[in-house]
């Protein structure tokens, strides 16, 4: 079992480059199934969720070639299978995008119920509602979701909750359906726009992505494209918070500052200095951090995927902060681990009350999910002493080369595997 060993207390300094967005890439890669020629996808992050997506494509019969570390050529002309088995799908939540993409390609799909981070109840009723509206029948057959349509036809889809996954899945299924699809109460995250831009670059006709009404006029054929995934705003936000938590001065490069606005605004409010450039943000701290209140919400609200990282920063601020989780039922499971590091946080349901203690201390901890893991990395970098983080496979799902990147700005972080630790101890 690998773990991160972090010696904290060093202010981070220097430039750090952000990779492509996980939550865009994991939809864009399955979307390649809809392309009738080959496509080239650039700025693909080096993370395990992407490897799983690419492996599923390959297992379905696609040709996948790595042209550079972050660039893949994908041809799905030879794909005949529409079956994504449990072994592949269980490893990540985003395997549900194969439902929409295979349905859009073949008019049928058989995909295992998805896995992913344990954040509480994660129903897919809105995905099914969209597929049904487009003319697909569904059934749950021993953990496999079966979809079949005689013909996919455009329709009006109103989502009862704002959902990223169902919005993207509806787009994937509708892009080649006959006629007009109108998605109402759509999610507006930057990765929704990115998926629409990718599909449009192949000849799709999608308008309104980024607003709450998306209109899709079905097309018959999607041609080849070369497309670069947008930068990951959550990875960027994580580095911004790490810079602030360590009292450092970091230039986070390769970002779209507009996508970071909900994060930037909150960080400025608690006393972090942020200067925006065309494709970079400089983050530094030269005074005390102060308490605030945060409620996570769908975009353009404060992103839930930054909640654990910001809560960690608030443990270092003066005063008592309130963090309310507005998207997921259980996203405070990391709090017990932060308490081990000296944080004073109490949780009641979806609300956390954080009494800033101004400091954290190193301790052995466990990542319970992806962003919880990112929060512990930040805590470890800011803490006095050594922090060992177990279960880092969660972190590797969404942060590529994180140790190298953080070492590049002075972070003292190393990945070690348990056997070598045992050897060291034995010596
Ligand atoms: N929901 C339903 N029914 C559905 C779908 C969603 O009730 O059919 C509810 C969920 O239970 C939740 C809310 O709607 O309360 C929002 O869920 P959403 O569908 O937006 O989430 P998701 O698509 O499953 C994606 C990201 C998550 C991120 C959320 C919210 C991917 C692969 N995952 O999940 O990312 O937290 O949107 O922004 O894109 C992460 O990256 O760490 C992560 C968990």
The spatial strand order of the largest sheet comes to 22-23-1-24
Mean pLDDT: 95
In total, how many beta strands? 24
- Low-confidence segments, ≥5 residues, pLDDT <50? none
Query: Which ions and ligands are bound to the chains?
Result: uridine-diphosphate-2(N-acetylglucosaminyl) butyric acid
Give me the number of helical elements.
15
Determine Rg (CA atoms, Å).
Answer: 22 Å
Principal-axis shape equals globular
Overall helicity: 25-40%
Structure description:
The relative contact order is 0.16. The longest helix is centred in the first third of the chain and has 13 residues, at 48-60. Helix 1 (22-31) runs parallel beside helix 7 (190-201) and helix 8 (233-245) packs parallel to helix 12. The chain contains 15 helices and 24 strands. The strands form six sheets. A four-stranded mixed sheet has the order 22-23-1-24. It has a four-stranded mixed sheet with strand order 2-15-17-16, with helices on one face. Strands 4-5-3-14 form a four-stranded mixed sheet, covered by helices on one side. The chain has 427 residues and is an alpha/beta fold. The two termini are 20 Å apart. The structure holds uridine-diphosphate-2(N-acetylglucosaminyl) butyric acid. Uridine-diphosphate-2(N-acetylglucosaminyl) butyric acid binds at residues 23, 26, 93-94, 117, 121-127, 161, 163-166, 187, 304-305, 327-328, 370-371, 398.
Short description:
With 427 residues, the chain is an alpha/beta fold. 32% of the residues lie in helices and 26% in strands.
């Amino acid at each position: 079992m690998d773990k991160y060993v972090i010696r904290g207390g060093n202010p981070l300094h220097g430039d750090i480059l952000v990779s492509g967005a996980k939550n865009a890439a994991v939809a864009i890669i399955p979307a390649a199934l809809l392309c009738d020629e080959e496509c080239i996808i650039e700025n693909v992050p080096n993370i395990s969720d992407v490897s799983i997506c690419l492996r599923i494509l390959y297992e379905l019969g696609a040709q996948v070639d790595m042209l550079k570390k972050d660039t893949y050529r994908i041809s799905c002309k030879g794909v005949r299978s529409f079956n994504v088995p449990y072994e592949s799908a269980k490893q990540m939540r985003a395997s549900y995008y194969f439902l929409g993409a295979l349905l859009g390609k073949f008019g049928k799909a058989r995909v295992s119920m998805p896995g992913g981070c344990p954040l509480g109840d994660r129903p897919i009723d809105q995905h099914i509602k969209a597929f049904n509206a487009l003319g697909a029948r569904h059934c749950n057959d021993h953990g496999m979701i079966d979809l079949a349509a005689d013909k996919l036809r455009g329709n009006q889809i109103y989502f009862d909750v704002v959902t990223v996954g169902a919005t993207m899945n509806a787009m994937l299924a509708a892009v080649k359906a006959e006629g007009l699809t109108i998605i109402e109460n759509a999610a507006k995250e930057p990765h929704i726009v990115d998926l629409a831009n990718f599909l449009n670059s192949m000849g799709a006709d999608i308008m309104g992505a980024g607003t709450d009404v998306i209109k899709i006029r079905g097309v018959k054929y999607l041609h080849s494209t070369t497309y670069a995934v947008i930068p990951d705003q959550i990875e960027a936000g994580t580095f911004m918070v790490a810079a602030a938590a360590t009292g450092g001065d970091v230039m986070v490069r390769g970002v779209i500052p507009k996508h970071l606005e909900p994060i930037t605004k909150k960080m400025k409010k608690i006393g972090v200095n942020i200067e925006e450039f065309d494709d970079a943000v400089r983050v530094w701290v030269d005074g005390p951090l102060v308490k605030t209140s945060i409620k996570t919400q769908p975009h353009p609200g404060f992103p839930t995927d930054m909640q654990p990282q910001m809560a960690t920063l608030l443990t270092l601020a003066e005063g008592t902060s309130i963090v309310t989780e507005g998207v997921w039922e259980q996203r405070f499971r990391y709090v017990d681990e932060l308490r081990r590091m000296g944080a004073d946080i109490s949780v009641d349901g979806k609300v956390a009350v954080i009494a800033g203690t101004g400091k954290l201390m190193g301790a052995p901890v466990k990542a319970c999910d992806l962003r919880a893991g990112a929060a512990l990395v930040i805590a470890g970098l800011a803490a006095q002493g050594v922090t060992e983080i177990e279960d880092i496979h969660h972190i590797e799902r969404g942060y590529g080369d994180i140790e190298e990147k953080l070492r590049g700005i002075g972070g003292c972080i190393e990945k070690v595997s348990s056997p070598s630790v045992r050897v060291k101890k034995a010596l």
